[in-house]
Amino acid sequence: MPHNINLELQEPFTLAPGQVSFFKQNGFIKLKNVFSPETIAYLNETISKEVQRLNTQHLPLAERDTYGKAFLQIMNIWTKSEPVKEIVFSKRLAKIAADLLGVDGVRLYHDQALYKEPGGGITPWHADQYYWPLASDSTVTVWIPLQETPLEMGPLEFSSESFKLTTGRDKEIGDESQQILKETLAREGFEHVVEPFDLGEVSFHKGWLFHRAGANNTDKMRSVMTMIYMDKDMVLKQPENKNQLLDWETWCPGAEVGKQIDTPINPVLYEN
C-alpha cells in the first residue's frame, strides 16, 4: 500500500458534535470527503481484484431470485487478502464508528463487498441486525462506494429514524420484506432519504435502521465495500432465528452465549 494512502486510512477524521447528534437522531449519516480520489481509486482496484477472484456467482441475472439479482456478495475478504486487510483495519473508519456509537472501542463483525452489476435489481428494504446474534444494538455499518454513485446506479437509501420501529424486525431480506416494509415505513411517516454519493463520500447506519437500494440502471458495476462494527464489549445472545445461528457459526465461531465476543476473527479495530 502506498504510504500516503496508508496514512489517510489511519489518520483520524474529526466529527462535528452536530454530526454525532444527527446520527443518534436519524440512525444514519453521510460524510463527504472521508477519502481522497486517489485513495478511492486504490480501494477500488484492490478490492475489485479480490471480488473477481473470490466470486462464485455465475448464474445469469435472469435466473437469480430478487436477492441474487441485488448484488455480488463477498464476505470477510480480509481473511483471504493482506491488502484488503490493511483497508478493513482502517483506524480512521473504526474511530468514526466508535464516535458515532459513543463507545470506547469497536470490534469487527465482518466485512462485505456488495457489487451491483449493470442491470442488477433492487436491494429490498431490510434491517441488518435481524441476522446478528448480538445482545445490544450498539452496531454500525460503514458503506463505502468505490466510485461516484448517481441515483441511476442504485446508491444506499435510508428510512430516517426507522431504527425506532419494531415492526418488521422479523423479516428476512427479500420480496416479502420489500413489500411489507415499503408499506409500513410510508404509513408510519418515516422520511425516505434517496441521494447520490459523491466520490469519497461514505455513510454509516445503525443495525436496526431500515434501508434499501435501487437497481443499477447503468452499464457500469456499482462497487461498494462495507464493514460492520460492534461495541468492543459486545456479548453474544442466544440466536433467535436460523440466520442468527448461521451468523454465530460463521462470523464469531467459538464465542459463547452470554459472554463477550472475543474471537480471532472479531479483532478490536479501535479503542480510546
Q: What order do the helices and strands come in, and which of them pair?
A:
Elements lengths: L2 H8 L6 H10 L1 E4 L5 H18 L11 H5 L1 E4 L6 H7 L2 H11 L3 E12 L6 E4 L12 E7 L10 E4 L15 H13 L4 E2 L8 E5 L4 E3 L8 E10 L10 H10 L16 E4 L1
Antiparallel strand pairs: 1-8, 2-3, 3-10, 3-11, 4-9, 5-8, 5-10, 6-7, 6-9
Largest sheet: 7 strands, antiparallel
Q: For this structure, what is the CATH class?
A: Mainly Beta
The CATH topology is given as Jelly Rolls
Q: Rg from C-alpha positions?
A: 17 Å
Structural class: alpha+beta
Offer a quick outline of the entry:
The chain has 272 residues and is α+β, with helices and mostly antiparallel strands. The protein has one domain: q2cbj1_9rhob like domain (Jelly Rolls), CATH 2.60.120.
Identify the notable features of this structure and list them briefly.
single chain; alpha+beta; Jelly Rolls; seven-stranded antiparallel β-sheet; four-stranded antiparallel β-sheet; 30% helix
Question: How would you describe the overall organization of this protein?
Answer:
This protein has 272 residues and is an alpha+beta fold. The chain has one domain (3-265): Jelly Rolls (Sandwich). Helix content is 30%, strand content 22%. It has eight helices and eleven strands. Strands 1, 2, 3, 5, 8, 10 and 11 form a seven-stranded antiparallel β-sheet that branches. A four-stranded antiparallel β-sheet has the order 4-9-6-7. The radius of gyration is 17 Å and the shape is globular. The two termini are 25 Å apart. The relative contact order is 0.21. The mean pLDDT is 94. It holds the Pfam family PhyH. InterPro entries: Phytyl_CoA_dOase-like. Keywords: Dioxygenase, Oxidoreductase. This is Phytanoyl-CoA dioxygenase family protein. Its cofactor is Fe(2+).
